[in-house]
Amino acid sequence: PGTFGTLGGVGIYGLFIFLGLYSPWVMLGVAVLLTCVGGVLGGWMERRYSSSDPSCVVLDEVAGYLVSVVVFVEGFSPIWVGLVAFVLFRVLDIWKPPPVGWAERLSGGWGVMADDLCAGVMVSGGIHLFLWLM
User: Fold this and answer.
1) Which candidate, 54, 30, 27, places its Cα nearest to that of 109?
2) In the prediction, which pLDDT does 118 show?
3) Residues 6+ apart with CB under 8 A from 109
4) Predicted local confidence at residue 64, as pLDDT
5) Which of 9-13, 37-41, 43-47 has the lowest mean pLDDT?
6) Do the Cβ atoms of 19 and 72 come closer than 8 Å?
7) CB 114 within 8 A of CB 104
8) Whose C-alpha in 23, 39, 41, 52 is 20 to 30 A from the C-alpha of 133?
9) Omega of the bond prior to 99 within 30 degrees of 0, cis?
């Protein structure tokens, strides 16, 4: 479910690129909006399915991916950035290195969202660092 949920984020990212509406600020704004919705509904979903971070909840992956493509560097293909972000985001979301794994331990709806947002920030930071070094 996580990979397919992330593909939802890829679709939103691609749509904004296709429509010529992509900007890092727009992606960040959409991610914040989805995070607020997920933070409120995530706790309800945990109670409904008696599970922490139920697999049917994928809004966290969408928001986390959109954070990962918040790249403020001009001159690089947004398609390249989107593909690299997808791979790195999935690796971090599955592997859950610190602090991603720590964020997953938070309770409630915000905990559902936190690990994916943390992974998204790490991916975006990694892409920025790589592009800066280039």
Assistant:
1) 54
2) 97
3) 38, 39, 40, 41, 42, 43, 44, 45, 46
4) 97
5) 43-47
6) no
7) yes
8) 23
9) yes
